[in-house]
């Protein structure tokens, strides 16, 4: 597997985002769905990572939206047939490295209560629960989490991966 920052407007990558939406949208009412659209993903403050297999096929993706004082993890998805091979862990670890290189040391996220696999993944990566942040309000279907990233080469939160 290889991971790189890529444009999200590639057809194969858009298919990943569409698959994520197809999975999440039936789980939650519209007011509890917090995905970001393509124009947002194309903004300069968004790091969009794609993990590909040896043939170059896109297996998964994830984004980090740089905000004032933190980054928000968004659009994490791995194709069902590619799960269990560490792709999601690698995407998160890659994004964390990119953030630290840019001087960002706090990562936050919102995920849904109906996604136990995601909750487990984030906990394994060192994310801890917190209250709503940014523009989010309280939502019984949302779980808010964060993780402090260590400085390069320094001690800190467990690495994901």
TrEMBL record:
Keyword tags: Acyltransferase, Transferase
Domain of life: Bacteria
Pfam families the UniProt entry points to: Acetyltransf_1
Entries under Gene3D superfamilies matching the protein: 3.40.630.30
InterPro entries hit by this protein: Acyl_CoA_acyltransferase, Bact_Acetyltransf, GNAT_dom
N-acetyltransferase domain span: 4-150
Keyword Transport recorded: no
Protein name: GNAT family N-acetyltransferase
Species assigned in the record: Ramlibacter aquaticus
């Amino acid at each position: 597997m290889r991971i790189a920052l890529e444009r999200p407007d590639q057809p194969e990558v858009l298919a990943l985002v569409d698959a994520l939406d197809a999975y999440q949208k039936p789980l939650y009412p519209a007011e509890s769905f917090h995905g970001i659209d393509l124009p947002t993903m194309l903004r300069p403050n968004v790091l969009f990572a794609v993990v590909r297999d040896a043939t170059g096929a896109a297996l998964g993706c994830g984004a980090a939206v740089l905000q004032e004082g933190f980054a928000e993890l968004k659009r994490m998805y791995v194709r069902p047939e590619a799960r269990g091979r560490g792709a999601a862990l690698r995407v998160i670890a890659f994004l964390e490295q990119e953030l630290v290189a840019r001087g960002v040391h706090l990562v936050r996220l919102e995920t849904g209560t109906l996604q136990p696999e995601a909750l487990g993944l984030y906990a394994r990566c060192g994310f801890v629960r917190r209250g709503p942040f940014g523009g989010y309000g309280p939502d019984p279907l949302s779980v808010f989490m964060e993780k402090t990233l260590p400085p390069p080469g320094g001690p800190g939160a467990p690495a994901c991966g």
